[in-house]
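Subject: design request, 215 residues
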């Protein structure tokens, strides 16, 4: 009997939008509910972010050895003690890489084509993330196709965004290094912590099934 292949190793990224209602305790509870690698905090367009409040939320996460990335002004990274940024591909990515690397994590997000992904990977991004952090209906199948293509050919870690448990399973099966759990999914199942636990259970079930299939 051949040895079984390694279990799917996708870890989790959690996506939260910075709003006055976002409670650090809620984010911390979600982080503790699964194998979470990082939290991405999104700044809504036109919103002003207080660095002290951002640092408070980040501190609640970082004490669990989980990185905190900002999808927003890169000037807040040092001010709030964050670990890096999640930034759209293109000129903004190039400028941010020059500014923050190698001291901080710089992830390339919002990628929708193979060409964009290859350019981002070659530029030195720490990961490539396909599709928007707030997916719309119809985004997923393109994201899944890109994840499967990238995982087969490249070493730079890749991220796919999931809005349902079935999408979590599909992305892990396609070889995603990280599954980003969208806010829509985090809001389901009774709140972020319960949603993360459900996502983690789905990943564990997928790993078990993979092991059984290899026997």
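Subject: RE: design request

Done. Sequence follows.
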């Amino acid at each position: 009997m051949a040895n079984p292949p390694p279990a799917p190793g996708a870890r989790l990224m959690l996506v939260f939008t910075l709003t006055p209602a976002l409670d650090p305790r809620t984010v911390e509870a979600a982080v503790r509910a699964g194998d979470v690698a990082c939290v991405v905090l999104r700044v809504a367009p036109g919103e002003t972010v207080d660095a002290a409040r951002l640092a408070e939320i980040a501190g609640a996460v970082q004490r669990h050895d989980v990185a905190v990335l900002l999808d927003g002004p890169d000037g807040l990274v040092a001010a709030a003690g964050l670990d890096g940024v999640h930034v759209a591909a293109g000129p903004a990515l190039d400028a941010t890489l020059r500014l923050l690397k190698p001291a901080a994590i710089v992830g390339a997000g919002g990628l929708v084509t193979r060409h964009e992904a290859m350019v981002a990977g070659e530029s030195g991004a720490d990961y490539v993330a396909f599709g928007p952090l707030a997916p719309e209906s119809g985004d997923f199948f393109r994201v899944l196709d890109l994840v499967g293509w990238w995982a087969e050919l490249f070493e730079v870690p890749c991220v796919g965004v999931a809005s349902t448990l079935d999408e979590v399973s599909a992305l892990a099966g396609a070889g995603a290094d990280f599954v980003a759990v969208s806010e829509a999914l985090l809001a389901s199942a009774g709140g972020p912590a319960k949603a993360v636990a459900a996502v983690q259970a789905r990943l564990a079930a997928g790993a078990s099934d993979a092991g059984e299939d290899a026997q």
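The chain has one domain: 11-17+26-214.
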